[in-house]
Amino acid sequence: MGNQLNxxxxxxxxxxxxxxxxxxxxxxxxxxxxxVQCHLISEQLIxxxxxxxxxxxxxxxxxxxxxxxxxxxxxxxxxxTDYLRAGGNFSHLEYIQE
Length: 98
Ligand SMILES: [Zn+2]
Fold this sequence. Notes:
It is built from one helix and eight strands; from the N terminus they run ββββαββββ. By secondary structure, the protein is mainly beta. A hairpin with a 5-residue loop joins strand 1 and strand 2.
C-alpha cells in the first residue's frame, strides 16, 4: 500500500509525466488547455458526461469542475501523492504503477 504514484503516460503524444508533490502541476506535450472549458456542474451530470471530469477528492461533496470539450488532447496531473488530481482527455491517460 501507499505505492500509488501520480504518474501517467499519454497515449496520444507518448509523454510520461509525474506529479511528485502537492503543488506540482505537470502536463503532457499535447495537452490543449485552450480547448478546455470549465463548467460548474452537479455530480449527477458528471456521471452522465462520463470521463472528462477534473477529480478533486478533497471536495467530494461540492460542485466539481468538468471539462466539457471532447476535442481536448492530453491531460495534466497535479497534487503529487497527497491527492491525485487529473484533467483533460482521460482516453489519453494511462496511469503507471511501479
Ligand atoms: Zn499528450
